[in-house]
């Protein structure tokens, strides 16, 4: 029953994402429209950073890592996590940890318990509104935080980022995010190639001096506005095909036609993705982003036939771009740690072997989901994102995550925190099946080989870590 129901409901979402998902077709800013100025001697790290194509902190490009930022948007389901895993599940960063990614989560059709699992795996959960609306009103943004906290046990302070559905945002959106205590937005486009002297491919910057991206797109923005000290923009960096500035590709570039052609051509896509990567890498090393709607590439979703060639193409790109060089081994924000909990402990904590058998199934007709935190009496809505719990006869209500316990150690059934403060393995292993593995195994065994020494540390990182890196250097 579940797959059938979800199928019917996701079809419209698929159509949406394939249509206007926030693509761009040309420049979204210009130096004139930006009217941006920022005094780097006053705007200093860690709290302030001017919009600049150069690496933060005055570092030379050869001293900064080449980040690949992998993000996913929309509902979290088994199908979308399978989809992401086919790109990231087998990979390692140079420090031996599994790559982390950022999931901009919207709640229609989300299976809450999988958000818990994905978060406890070490990934970042960010806000994408409750019901996927553009230029979102406050309750869409706040409701998402409240429902994710209540029904998935995601700590409020860990939800730091936002991306607007359809990349449709306004000056008000940014003000609302800053006021609500978010650290960053990632809805703006970098629409001019890094080889253009006026490129808008800025390293992440704080809005102390206003925005410098999307000045031609969003009313009332730029020329110093909006001034939001300490709030960051992480631009989405476009790829460019042979048409240069007139051939930008932003989200799901593999669904686009390249070079003005009328059909998708995976070789042409791979070619321009590699060319854009190389331009970033040999230039100022602005991050490269793979911004995905993973449902398109699901191999498990009934009725969706993701082309294998596209999946192989994306993996080929990642194989080619990712080379282990062992740099940044000791960089704390990119280290991975694993909660130490005996696998026989029955606790509903986002770790599949611990929580098996303890989940509640909440069979809302248009939106059945699972959660460890007790089914609500009605599906969450913007006017009531945290409805009262439905407590089955003979059971007691489940306890919601308190602010002083981490998700992996919280037992919502007993209402107890099992953490004593030193229950994480630290260091440079991911604590997984084979923490000492040091060799990188390409997805299909025939990825491009990149000569050793030509490429420095390249790895898949979490978008939050970009901010982290800046803070430390
Ligand atoms: C929802 O989560 C449950 C528990 O992990 C899982 O059994 C089920 O397959 C998931 N369904 C979807 C559609 O994500
Ligand atoms: C999904 O979103 C629509 C608005 O687009 C809303 O009317 C509906 O109630 C939502 N459904 C659920 C189950 O959240
Ligand atoms: C952005 O979203 C708002 C509200 O849904 C809508 O009225 C507006 O037309 C959208 N703008 C664009 C450019 O799609
Ligand atoms: C697809 O792209 C490749 C690489 O640019 C090109 O050599 C080939 O001719 C293209 N195929 C078609 C059918 O256009
Ligand atoms: C894709 O690959 C899988 C596994 O190798 C295979 O079962 C499936 O038939 C392939 N699908 C297509 C459309 O080629
Ligand atoms: C968390 O706070 C509660 C009450 O505020 C307290 O009883 C509990 O001991 C605290 N737990 C930890 C692990 O600090």
In terms of topology, how is this protein built?
Elements: H1 2-18, H2 31-34, E1 66-74, H3 78-88, E2 102-105, H4 112-120, E3 124-127, H5 138-152, E4 161-162, H6 171-179, E5 184-185, E6 189-190, E7 205-207, E8 228-233, E9 236-237, E10 239-240, E11 248-249, H7 266-282, E12 288-292, H8 308-321, E13 338-339, H9 352-355, E14 360-362, E15 369-371, E16 410-411, E17 416-417, E18 424-425, E19 458-461, H10 463-472
Parallel strand pairs: 1-2, 1-12, 1-19, 2-3, 4-5, 5-8, 6-9
Antiparallel strand pairs: 7-8, 10-11, 13-18, 14-15, 16-17
Helix pairs in contact: 7-8
What does this protein look like?
This protein is 23% helix and 13% strand. It is α/β, with parallel strands linked by helices. The strands form seven sheets. Strands 1, 2, 3, 12 and 19 form a five-stranded parallel sheet that branches. The protein has a four-stranded mixed sheet with strand order 4-5-8-7. A two-stranded parallel ribbon has the order 6-9. Helix 6 (171-179) links the parallel strand 4 and strand 5. The chain is globular, with a radius of gyration of 22 Å. The N and C termini lie far apart (52 Å). The site of one 2-acetamido-2-deoxy-beta-D-glucopyranose has 9 residues, from helix 1 and helix 4.
